[in-house]
Amino acid sequence: MASSTVGAQPSFSTLAISTNEPVVSVDWLHANIRDPDLKVLDASWYMPDEQRNPLQEYQVACIPGALFFDIDRITDRTTNMLQLAIRHAFEIDFITFYDRKALLIYQLPHMLPSKEAFAAAVSALGIENKDGVVVYDGKGIFSAARVWWMFRAFGHDKVWVLDGGLPRWCASGYDVESTAPSDAILKSSAATEAIEKVYQGQMVGPTTFQTKFLPHLVWTLDQVKRNIQDKAYQHIDARSKARFDGVAPEPRKGINSGHVPGSKCIPFPQMLDGSQTLLSREELEKKFGQEGISLDKPIVASCGTGVTACILVLGLHRLGKTDIPVYDGSWTEWATQPDTPLSTSVR
Fold it and tell me: What are the protein's GO molecular function terms (predicted)?
């Protein structure tokens, strides 16, 4: 579908949108897409076994004016578990140390980058602190929630997920660009280059986006370990029940399934309806209540690599729980440590 003029001049500023509401509708975006202080990001990402290329799909069909945010590249470049693997080589017998592809197993994907790296990448995309940001993905609500959380973790609360994502945008009859502008592709490449320069200690271009890291939104391995004993936080896991129970394999080779002791499973699709939009407040309250989660007590969320946990956080945000942390390393980190306990339902 070719691009056409979308919407009229915005009837109100993005600043008028409440940051207590984590999503905006496609109708709202269509009406406000020309606001110069609004940036739209395609943050599509898919599981490895889906064999889909989000950048290629973005280049074929994207919301007009959207930039591509690559969560595989705008990430920490230092978190690598190779040393751990070597140290425990006898315990991890599936690795081939001379096979470079096998070594990639040990890199923790999607870990939050440093505040300097995030600032550099977002600045390369042309985003400023004054901007409102709307994030969408190709599934409805999936990886976009991760980028929403990333912005919030770095102190930017003028960020929302597009409810229903690209599928709902298209189903509503709104046009897409059939060829992404070359400028947008260049900006995406520049964001990746900026991240790499920061981690290599090189100079980067002007920074238009300033970060303020909020550590209470990001949990570490040690915090999860302490919580097993303290039980101060209710730990909820967004993976499938079969993976949580240890009866289905993890999508990443060499990682056992199961769960953190004491955690509870709320698969992320339970936050969404059939059209992949976020459930109403009443329906969300019911879902959490059915799983024995008290909204009056602290909560921490995790998943496989820190992506779908953010969908649980999105739902909790709608319920007024705006300070829910994510265990960033999630199950990929937990299950590959030599001294972390794993629970399953298998007897």
Answer: thiosulfate-cyanide sulfurtransferase activity
Residue the block writes with tokens 């919580």 = 227
pTM exceeds 0.70, yes or no: yes
In 3D space, the residue among 192, 165, 211, 210 whose CA is nearest the CA of residue 66 turns out to be 165
| Cβ neighbourhood burial of 162 (10 Å; 0-12, 13-18, 19+) | buried
Find all residues with CB under 8 Å of 71, minimum gap 6, and list them.
43, 45, 110, 143, 146, 147, 307
Q: DSSP E strands: which ranges in 174-323?
A: 218-219, 234-237, 264-265, 299-302
Strand 264-265 and strand 234-237: pairing? parallel
Residue type, 170: C
Catalytic residues: 303
Beta-carbon contacts of residue 253 (< 8 Å; ≥ 6 apart): 94, 105
β-bridge partners, 302: 237
* Cα of 82 vs its chain's centroid, Å: 24
**Mean of all residue pLDDT scores within the chain:** 88
pLDDT band of 41, cuts 50, 70, 90 = very high
- Among residues 327, 320, 293, the alpha carbon closest in space to that of 219 is found at 327
User: How many Cα atoms within 13 Å fall on the side-chain side of residue 29?
Assistant: 31
